[in-house]
C-alpha cells in the first residue's frame, strides 16, 4: 500500500495538502481555487471531465461530452489520481482509494455529486448515467421510449430524444405536473414544443418501470446525493441526505472537511437550500476553494453568497427556454423561448467549461 503525504517544503515554508474527491463542476472548481495556496490531489476515476449537463445530448448522438482533465489543471499544483475513493478517516485525516493508495490531507473537499435515484439502469431501463448505452439502444431500431419524470432533466431528455430519434415514439409520465419549477408561460411553451415533437404527456401518475408498457424506459424521476462514503465516515448529513455544512461550506461535524456541489447541503439566506445544479456547483466549489486558501493563509473563511437568476432548459437543438427567476429560484413571468432560448442555453453551457479553464 502506498502512502502519499503531499506536504512539501518550498522556500522553507510548508505547503499544505488538500485532497478533493470528485472532478465534476464543484470538485474541479474547488481544486483549482485551493491550488492558489496548497498542493492539491484530485481523486476521480476518469482522466476526463464530463459535462454532465450534456448527458441528454450524448444520448441523442453527440459524440463526446468530455474534456481531458489535464487541460484544466496544467500549470497548477494539482495532481490527478485516477481512482475511486473508498474510505475517509476524518480523525486521521486520510482518504483511501480502490487502487490501494492512502492520501493525507490538511483540508478535504467532498464533491462526489449525485446519481439518479432508485434505478441504476439495466435491461430496457436507462438513466442519464448510462446515456451512451441508451444511444446504442436507440440506434438498434424504432419503438416506444417513455421518459419518467417531468422536471427539467426529464424535459430536456424527452425533447432532445424526440427531435434526434424521429422514428421513436416518445412519451412522458410524471407524478406531478410537467415542469413544476417553471412559470405558467414557461410550462405552456414546453407543452407547445412537446406537441410539435409528438411527445404525449401523462401527469399525476406515479409508476414503477415494471408497470410501463414501453420498449425503452428512461428513468429521470429524481436525483440522490452520493454521500454513502460521508455517512460511513460519520460525517453528519442533513435531512436530504446531503453533507451538512455551515455558511462557509465546512462540514458541521469535521470543519477541516468542505462539501460542494450536489453532495453538499449548502444554503444561503437569499436562495434557501440550493438545488442540485451545475449553476450552484460552480459558485459553491469556487467559494469552498477560496475559503481553503484563506484558511491556509491564517484568515477567516467567508460565507457563501449566492442567488438564482434563471433556469436554462434546452428543448432539442433548435429550441430552448430561458426562465427568469427570483433570488430564491421561484419563477418570474418573463421567459425567452425558441432559437434565442436555445442559443442562450448553449452559451451558458459553454461558459461553464470556460469558467473552469480560467479559474
Ligand atoms: C441530463 C442532465 C442535464 C442537466 N442540466 C443542467 C442544467 O441545465 N443546469 C444545471 O444547473 N444543472 C444541470 N444538471 C445537473 C448538474 O449536472 C449537476 O447538478 C452537476 O453535475 C453537479 O456537479 P457536482 O460537481 O456536484 O457533481 P458531478 O458533476 O456529478 O461530479 C461528481 C464527480 O465525482 C466523481 N466520483 C463519484 N464517485 C466517486 C468516488 N467514489 N471517488 C472519486 N470520485 C468519484 C465522478 O466521477 C465525478 O467526477 C443536469 C443533469 C443532468 C443529468
Automatic annotation (TrEMBL):
Gene3D superfamilies: 3.50.50.100. Pfam families: Pyr_redox_2. The keyword Oxidoreductase applies. The keyword Flavoprotein applies. Its cofactor is FAD. Residues 17-267 form the FAD/NAD(P)-binding domain. Keywords: FAD, Flavoprotein, Oxidoreductase. Belongs to the NADH dehydrogenase family. This is FAD-dependent pyridine nucleotide-disulfide oxidoreductase. It comes from Kibdelosporangium persicum.
Amino acid at each position: 500500500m502506498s502512502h502519499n503525504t503531499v506536504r512539501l517544503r518550498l522556500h522553507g515554508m510548508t505547503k499544505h495538502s488538500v485532497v478533493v474527491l470528485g472532478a465534476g463542476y464543484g470538485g474541479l472548481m474547488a481544486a483549482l481555487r485551493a491550488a492558489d495556496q496548497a498542493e492539491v490531489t484530485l481523486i476521480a476515476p476518469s482522466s476526463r471531465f464530463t459535462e454532465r449537463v450534456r448527458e441528454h445530448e450524448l444520448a441523442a448522438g453527440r459524440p463526446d461530452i468530455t474534456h481531458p482533465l489535464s487541460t484544466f489543471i496544467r500549470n497548477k499544483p494539482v495532481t490527478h489520481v485516477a481512482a475511486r475513493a473508498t474510505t475517509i478517516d476524518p480523525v486521521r485525516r486520510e482518504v483511501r482509494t480502490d487502487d490501494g493508495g492512502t492520501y493525507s490531507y490538511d483540508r478535504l473537499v467532498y464533491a462526489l455529486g449525485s446519481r439518479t435515484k432508485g434505478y441504476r439502469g439495466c435491461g430496457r431501463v436507462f438513466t442519464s448515467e448510462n446515456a451512451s448505452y441508451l444511444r446504442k439502444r436507440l440506434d438498434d431500431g424504432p419503438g416506444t421510449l417513455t421518459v419518467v419524470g417531468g422536471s427539467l432533466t426529464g424535459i430536456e431528455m424527452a425533447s432532445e430524444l424526440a427531435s434526434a430519434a424521429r422514428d421513436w415514439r416518445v412519451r412522458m409520465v410524471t407524478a406531478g405536473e410537467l415542469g413544476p419549477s417553471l412559470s405558467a408561460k414557461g410550462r405552456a411553451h414546453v407543452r407547445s414544443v412537446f406537441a410539435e415533437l409528438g411527445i404525449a404527456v401523462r401527469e399525476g401518475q406515479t409508476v414503477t418501470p415494471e408497470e410501463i408498457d414501453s420498449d425503452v424506459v428512461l428513468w429521470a424521476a429524481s436525483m440522490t446525493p452520493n454521500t454513502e462514503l460521508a455517512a460511513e465516515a460519520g460525517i453528519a448529513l442533513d435531512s436530504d441526505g446531503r453533507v451538512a455544512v455551515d455558511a462557509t461550506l465546512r462540514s458541521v461535524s469535521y470543519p477541516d472537511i468542505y462539501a460542494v456541489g450536489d453532495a453538499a447541503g449548502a444554503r444561503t439566506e437569499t436562495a434557501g437550500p440550493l438545488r442540485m445544479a451545475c449553476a450552484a456547483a460552480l459558485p459553491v466549489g469556487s467559494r469552498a476553494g477560496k475559503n481553503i486558501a484563506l484558511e491556509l493563509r491564517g484568515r477567516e473563511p467567508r460565507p457563501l453568497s449566492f442567488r438564482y437568476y434563471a433556469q436554462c432548459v434546452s428543448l432539442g437543438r433548435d429550441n430552448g427556454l430561458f426562465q427568469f427567476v427570483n433570488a430564491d429560484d421561484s419563477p418570474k413571468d418573463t421567459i425567452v423561448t425558441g432559437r434565442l432560448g436555445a442559443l442562450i442555453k448553449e452559451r451558458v453551457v459553454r461558459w461553464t467549461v470556460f469558467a473552469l479553464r480560467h479559474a
